[in-house]
Structures are given as C-alpha cells and as structure tokens.
TrEMBL record:
Keywords from the named record: Cell membrane, Membrane, Transmembrane, Transmembrane helix
TM regions (residue ranges): 12-33, 39-59, 66-86, 92-115, 122-144, 164-184, 257-278, 298-320
UniProt GO molecular function: branched-chain amino acid transmembrane transporter activity
Top-rank taxon, per record: Bacteria
Location of the protein in the cell: Cell membrane
Organism in which the protein naturally occurs: Alsobacter metallidurans
Keyword Glycoprotein included in the entry's annotation: no
Membrane topology per record: Multi-pass membrane protein
Keyword Hydrolase in annotation: no
CDD domains named among the record's database cross-references: TM_PBP1_LivM_like
Protein's name in the database: Amino acid ABC transporter permease
GO annotations of cellular component type: plasma membrane
Amino acid sequence: MTGPVNTSPRTSLLAAYGPILAVALVLALLPLATTANTVLNAMVLALLIALAGQGWNILGGYGGQFSFGHAVFFGTGAYAVALLQSRLGLNAYLAFGAAVAIGAAVGAAIGFLSFRSGLRGSYFALVTLAFAEVFRIVANASPWTGGASGALIKLDMRPENFQFASRATFFWIALALVTAALVATRMMERSRFGAYLVAIRENEDAAKALGVNTFRVKLQAITASAAVTAAAGAFYAQYFLFVDANIAFGTWISVEALLVPIVGGLGTVFGPLIGALALHGLAEATKALAGRLPGADLALYGALLVLAIAFAPNGVQGLFNRLKGGFSTRRAA
C-alpha cells in the first residue's frame, strides 16, 4: 500500500521550475572552471542560438506555426540596438529593452497580416521567409542603417553599457536571458494560453469549433516569439558590436532557430537548449577534422545530423524520455 501523494503547490512549483534552476546553476559554474576564451565564446554562441530557438519554439513547437523567416525578428533586434545606441545615444540596457519591444511590435504586425488572411502551414512559412528577405534588402539599401557597410557600435567602457563586460560576464548575461526564456516557456506551458496553443497545433479547426479564439492566440504567440528572438538579435549586436544586413537577416539564423528545437525536442521547454548545446558541441568537435581533410567536418556534421533526425524524430529529449520509459518498464517487470 502506498502513502499519500504530495500534491501541494510548493511541490508542484519545485517540480516545474526546479530543473530549470538546477541547469542554470550548473552552467553558471562554467566560467569558474575555465577561463579559455574559445570555450566561453563557443558557449555564448550556443546560448545565443538557444535563445533564438526558444523564440521559434514558442510559435513553431507549441503552436505548430512553422516559420522559415525568424531572421526578421533577430535582425530587427540587432539593428534596433545598433541604431539606438549609435544614432540616438541610448545606453545599452535601454536600447536592449527598446529592441525587444520593437521586435515584438514587428511580430504582431506580421502576425496580424498573416493570420488575418488565414495563412497557415507552408503558406505562412513562405510569407515569413519573404518578410525576412524584404527586411534584408531594405537594410542593405538604406543609408540610415549603414547600407552594405553595416552598423557599428562604438566601444563604450561606461558602466551603463555592457561592452565593458568580460567574456565570462557576457556568458552569464546570455545564461540569464536563456533562463528567463525557459521560465517564461514553462509558465506558458502550464497556463490556459499554452493549452490553447497546443490545441491549435493539434487541430486548429477543432480548437476553433470548441470556442478558442485562434486568431488572438496565434497573434499573442508570434508576438512573444518575436520578442524572445529579438532579444537574441540584440544580444548578438552587443556581443560583436557590429551588424550588417546579411548577418542580421540572413538565412543562417532562420535555419539555426528552427533546427535546434527540432534536434532537441519540439514543443518542450529544454528542447532548444539541448539542441543548441548538442549541435554546437558537435560542430566544435568536428572542426578538428578540417585541418586534415578540408570539408570532412561539415560532411560528418551533416551525416550525424541526418541520423539524429531519422532515428530520433522527437529530438534528443524525446529519445531520452523513451529510453527512461523503457528502463522504468524493465525495472518494474
């Protein structure tokens, strides 16, 4: 006979948010274990992609609205920070907050135009790709954005700007942003809004028949998704102090943002972080082959990626859950 199950709110909150805080604490210790710039730089880039992937995951993983053009939000955040600092003289933190708000506004505008027109599936994906390309062309041609030369953020060592920060400090800032995104995603997952979003992903027509305002839910989802992705773009600009149209609105970030949730686990809280760490760890590991056999690292990286998607369609987290379930079943038997 088993004892009573503890279902107190405190236990529920600990089960929901405890793993997030534990992972954040473990990762936060990394700069204390190593001061190598190559390691810290690789981890900062992995966290940057994880943040962009978490933005994509809110809309694509939970809502089923696949986007091929999340670069439009990433680039908006990057250019907003660069221009607000270089043109208007805002400090880094105010510019960062404004960039996130501008990215959210762009997401709301694109979502309103797309979802009000009834676009879904491949049509929505192509529209987001078109928006990203339009923004890239405009940024590349406009003299106010620096045109093809890009926008440069001047190095400022004042305390109100975080360009004075060390590589380790940038790592902790990136980790704080990712942790905040993880917590926000968990909160969304446990809310009624999250349930509506999953219902739309599973069957939008059925959700609408049950009384869900699908237009409003999808509009809120793309706004939140754009804000998180714009935060990744704003951090990128602060980290590298330079941005141009091909970097900010390039297809590379759209691919990375959708790839890490797919590899890590679509529609899961930790999926984008797991996918980013796995893919960037794999990329760093295969770089050693480049010196001996040019192109071999990319070929091996691509082959392993195809195998991962083929044999783990639910991502790394789904594979782990499946293995854990099988172990629990064998132990019970």
